[in-house]
Structure formats: structure tokens, C-alpha cells
Amino acid sequence: MHTLNLTVNGENHELNLDTRTTLLDTLREHLQLTGTKKGCDHGQCGACTVIVNGERINSCLTFAVMHDGDEVTTIEGLGMPDNLHPMQEAFVKHDGYQCGYCTPGQICSAVAVLDEITKGLPSHVTEDITQAAAPTNMEMRERMSGNICRCGAYSNIAEAMSEVVGGAA
Which residues have C-beta within 8 Å of that of residue 11, sequence separation ≥ 6? Predict the structure, then answer.
């Protein structure tokens, strides 16, 4: 067992956890934040994506103890039904979800992807890595490729992201 402190969605938590507990299980089972989903539990689907210290991660692939003192943002921390984050609003408007299971991870990833692009971080498809990345459709799709949607709402997700960034899909 190990005692750690996490700031989750702006709220501090002191937890005493088995050192083998994943961040995903900590969020779902110990903090009752069930918006983050367990999909494959192998880091292949992205359903468990959360934002840690401003960067997106697959919460199923990391132990909670590795994040002692970190700031974690889940889908609940981005917005709630009475106060949606702009990305959540765009997903609703553009039907960027179907069954909805992957949606929390998709939205957390989309928010972080736009932040990566804003910071000028290159991706595999960035044409000129000496220049800041642009929020093109191809750039956003490449960065979102780690988030799988079994329903195939990819075009709708790209449209939602484009609306938030102010570009064209």
C-alpha cells in the first residue's frame, strides 16, 4: 500500500492504494468517476484517455502511484450537463458520438490534441517540423488515431474538433 495525493478535476484527494492500482481503476473504483471508460485495458482503444498535467494519457497503462502530486482532468472535470466544455458542445452538435462508450476518451483526447497543435508540437504528418503544426483535418485525424470508435463517428468527431479550433473539416 502507498499513500498518494492526486488533484482530480480541481479537487485534492489523499488515497491509500495498492501500488498495482492503475490510474483508471483509481478514478472509477476509488473516486467513483465513472465517465472514464475501461475499453480494452491494454492501451489500444483510448476509451480511458484522461489529461494529466496537461497531457493526454491512457489511464489503463499507468499506475496511480506514478502520479503522486499530479493534476488529472477527466471528462467530468471538463464539463457537466449544465456547463459543457466547448468540445462537449461541439460533439453534441455534430453527433460526434454514437453508442457513447468511447466519447469521454475521445473528448479528453480532442481537447489535448488541440492544445498540442496550439503549442506547435509536430506529429507524424506535420509537413514541416520547423513550422508550427496547423489544425488541418489530416493533422487532427493523425493525432486522434489512438482513439478507436467502433461506431465509426470519425467524420463527426473531426467536424466537432474543427468547429472548436475554428477551422474547416
Answer: none
Q: In angstroms, rounded to a whole number, what is the distance separating the alpha carbons of residues 148 and 102?
A: 7
Q: Which amino acid is at 77?
A: G
Q: What is the DSSP letter of 22?
A: B
Rounded Cα distance between 24 and 67, Å, is: 12
| pLDDT tens figures, 116-155 | 999 989 898 988 888 888 899 999 999 999 999 999 899 9
Residues 71-98: tens digit of each pLDDT: 999 999 999 999 999 999 999 999 998 8
The amino acid present at 85, given as its one-letter code, is H
pTM of the model: 0.93
List the beta bridge partners of residue 56: 51
Cα–Cα distances (Å) from 99 to 102, 151, 152, 167, in that order, read 8, 7, 10, 26
The single-letter code of the amino acid at 151 is C
